[in-house]
Amino acid sequence: MEVVFPSPQQIMRRAMLHHKGFLMGLSVIIVVTLLTILAPVLATHDPYAQDLGQRLIPPVWQEKGTWDHPLGTDNLGRDYLSRLIYGSRVSLLIGLSVMLIAGLIGTTLGLLAGYFGGKMDMFVSFLVTVRLALPAVLVAVAVVSLIGGSTRIVILVLGLLVWDRFAVVVRASTQQIRPLEYVAAAKSAGCSTFRILAQEMLPNLMNNLIVVATLEVARAILLEAALSFLGMGVQPPTPSWGLMISEGKEFMLFYPYLITIPGVALFLLLLGFNLLGDGIRDVTAPEGR
Questions:
Q1: Closest by alpha carbon to 72, among 289, 261, 284, 216?
Q2: CA distance readout (Å), 72 to 58, 115, 259
Q3: pTM value?
Q4: What are the structural domain ranges in the chain?
Q5: I want to staple 195 with a disulfide (CB 3.0 to 4.6 A). Which of 5, 74, 191, 205 is the partner?
Q6: Alpha-carbon dihedral sign for residues 145, 270, 134, 124
Q7: The domain at 8-45+58-284 falls in which architecture?
Q8: Reduced to 3 states, what is the DSSP secondary structure of residue 131?
Q9: CB count, 10 Å around CB of 243?
Q10: Do residues 240 and 233 lie in contact, with contact meaning Cβ atoms separated by under 8 Å?
């Protein structure tokens, strides 16, 4: 009787289906992604429409709540559910955009440092050290306060500030696989340096890059919320979860839902990305398989 062994893909798929943290994180991200895609359908009101006659209506589970505004309204009478749904778009847009910019910068620097070593490695290490010596939040606040806050400015500033993890992880991984046989074979075959980096080494770094990318998305979303809370990120009336918390802090003693609802949404999204990153790390690591 022939024994059929499962393929590595089947083993990894089975591990993912049995990893509770991975499934929980993936479920949260799928739900938030669907909210962003279906926002025009799910939002019952215009998130920008103001009605002072409907201001500070409590959520439906509280006294005087109404199903016309299930999560209540803010101090300008805007529907909180609609602003929460559209705010997920802002969070995901900024998180993914910042991750792409930071990933491009950090991966390029890490590959060059790990492959060439020597002066290039010293130069990249110096850049990483300088970056780590500058707190991302303080630098972002200083730059945004000088230039002015907007979605594009926040994406650009954060993208140029949070590349260090990509560089460190890619550099270390590249140094580990540089002496391996398939890299030496590519060099012997006369492959160009660009081809070796792009086609031989980079695909073997993808697992580590995916893990770092999920964590950096969560980090970028949190930094954007912090900047918006300080009034230096996404500007009103654009719905942003950090901005919603900032606008509701003046009424938190009497209307705590104004900061609780966006705060819980932000917490769940960050938790989802972190659980997804941890799950990918566990199922792709050799000891996890």
A1: 261
A2: 5, 56, 12
A3: 0.87
A4: 8-45+58-284
A5: 191
A6: negative
A7: Orthogonal Bundle (1.10)
A8: helix
A9: 26
A10: yes
